[in-house]
Write a structure and sequence with these properties.
Glutaredoxin; four-stranded mixed β-sheet
Length: about 200
């Protein structure tokens, strides 16, 4: 059975734009997924990247155009300058790690709920009430926001180390079980082709 290690950040606009398309590809091929939230800003520093606010103005301007273009292309609501960005991505990441351990809900839906909350509906995903609402929306026990958070801290840190060691440098980032690495929401079609044996 094919497997995908999925590295992402809950405040990444490109993770939001990926929507649930990777999960659809995985289901098509019977592939399993391990969700690995990472501290993207720290990862940038570890792998030669630059946080958006520190990039050259030409790159910032391109990013602003590209995000809006991609959102329109995908028919997704999008706010280029959300009220609560950047925000602390650790609490939502801890909740996602706890949800993955607990089971009972839809992890892809949870990732999308967090990212949509940030980029489309102006909510702060560092806040407990927002985290609880996202957990509930995705079919998880909202009390995971209280009971599972501290246990997620070690795994969150381990995900960062693992990501840096496996060649991950951005989000969303997909690694197949034969070490095919794909970066970006615009590479999901390639993931489908790889799992089909066509690429």
């Amino acid at each position: 059975m094919a497997h995908i290690d999925y590295y992402f950040a809950t405040i990444s606009p490109y993770t939001y734009l990926a929507g649930m398309r990777m999960e659809e590809v995985a289901a098509k091929h019977g592939a399993t997924i391990t969700y690995k939230p990472v501290d993207l800003i720290t990862l940038f520093g570890r792998t030669g990247g630059t946080p958006p606010k520190d990039r050259h103005i030409s790159r910032q301007e391109w990013r602003a155009q590209e995000l809006v273009r991609q959102a329109k292309k995908l028919g997704m609501p999008f706010n280029l300058k959300p009220a609560h960005w950047p925000t602390n991505m650790a609490p939502s990441s801890y909740a996602l790690i706890a949800a993955q351990k607990a089971g009972g809900g839809d992890l892809g839906k949870l990732v999308f709920a967090f990212t949509r909350s940030c980029w489309a509906v102006e909510k702060d995903i560092a806040q407990d009430d927002v985290i609880r609402a996202c957990l509930e929306e995705a079919g998880f026990d909202p009390d995971l926001a209280d009971t599972g958070m501290l246990a997620g801290a070690d795994e969150y840190a381990a995900n960062l180390e693992e990501a840096a060691n496996r060649g991950v440098f951005g989000a969303p980032f997909y690694i197949t079980d034969d070490d095919q690495r794909l970066w970006g929401q615009d590479r999901i079609e390639d993931l489908d082709l790889i799992l089909s044996g066509k690429l």
